Amino acid sequence: MDTASVKNTAVQSEIRTKLDNWCKAVKSRDVKSIMSHYAPNVVAFDAVQQLKFNGVEAYGKHWAACLAMCPGPMVFDLGDVDISAENDLAFSFCLINCGATDENGVQKTSWMRMTSGFRKLDGQWKVVHEHFSAPFDMQTGKALFDLQPDGSTKLSAIPQGMNTITPHLICAGAAEAIEFYKKAFNATELGRLAGPDGKLMHGAVRIGDSVVMLMDEFPQCGAMSPRTLKGTPVSVHLYVDNADTSFERAVAAGAKVIMPLADMFWGDRYGVIEDPFGHHWSIATHIRDLSHEEIQTAAQQACAQGADALNNAK
User: Fold this and answer.
1) Which of 13, 38, 133, 211 shows a CA-CA span of 20 to 30 A to 195?
2) pTM to 2 decimals?
3) d(Cα 181, Cα 192) in Å, to the nearest integer?
4) Cβ count near 20 (within 10 Å)
5) How does pLDDT run across 58-116, given as a tens digit for each residue?
6) Beta strand 124-133 pairing with 38-45
7) d(CA 121, CA 38)
8) Rounded to an integer, what distance in angstroms lies between the CA atom of residue 301 and that of residue 311?
9) In the chain, what is the greatest distance between 2 CA atoms, to the nearest angstrom?
């Protein structure tokens, strides 16, 4: 083995020790010790919160915030570590399993990718750049935190592609409803399951990044549609890039206008339609950001204007 190879091997061992000590500091929640591994002018890209952190002070605050989000015993383990070094520069590439243990002793972790750039400063290796990332589903835009290093997917209590809350619509004619949602909302059909009588026991479409489940009505099981109930107290709220285009497309497909589109006091362009199956959909595009105080003031003004209009109509 030549001298350069011996030197690089020694550096790789030194960097690996630095990484192991850094992991120990994270598990012990010692922010000061964690940050001692970084250069003062470190530039970091994390997979959460903001896009970029400049400097050890800003990144230290971020680390403290991340640790606060994981109240149980920390899990922070490296895998598939690869280290390259040349002169006063070194890079480590690895997978990292991070998270915490909840009050029931269940580990809630996910694997991410991590790249760290080291530079030797005043005789010590310091991280000058760090980058955490996770692959994501291009259809939903969600990070794939259930992927495992061997390519398998960890069983999740919430299936991949699903949200915590999912609308489940009962329709008098669920198959026809699927076709309507394709035309009105550019929905993608995910599947359907018909019973012996041909009625849909289950169907699902994806609209934007969300799944909507639906089924035919089965009055004998208490599953009744808005048509049978003579109305609905629920509205499905749909955010879109262009409310006008989406609203017009839904109406052209057969929806009835309940509330015309208008610029609303809370910062959305907003309107409501009723689909042919009796379900109400509020369609909106966010057009301006307002503070809570600004929304409160605007709401009071809108209510006053509404009261004046009612009085004038009498």
Assistant:
1) 211
2) 0.70
3) 14
4) 12
5) 999 999 999 988 888 889 999 999 999 988 999 999 999 998 887 777 778 889 999 99
6) parallel
7) 10
8) 15
9) 97
The residue whose two tokens read 């939903």 is 140
Contacts of 130 (CB under 8 A, 6+ apart): 38, 42, 44, 45, 46, 114, 115, 116, 117
CA distance 272 to 253: 15
Q: How many residues does the chain have?
A: 314
CA 286-288-292 angle, 5° bins: 100
225 near 171, Cβ under 8 Å? yes
Q: What is the dihedral of CA 239, 244, 249, 252, to 10 degrees?
A: 130
Q: Report the number of secondary-structure helices (H) and strands (E) in the chain.
A: 7, 14
124: which strand partners?
121
pLDDT at 269 over 80: yes
What domains are defined for the chain? 3-133 (3.10.450.50), 168-313 (3.10.180.10)
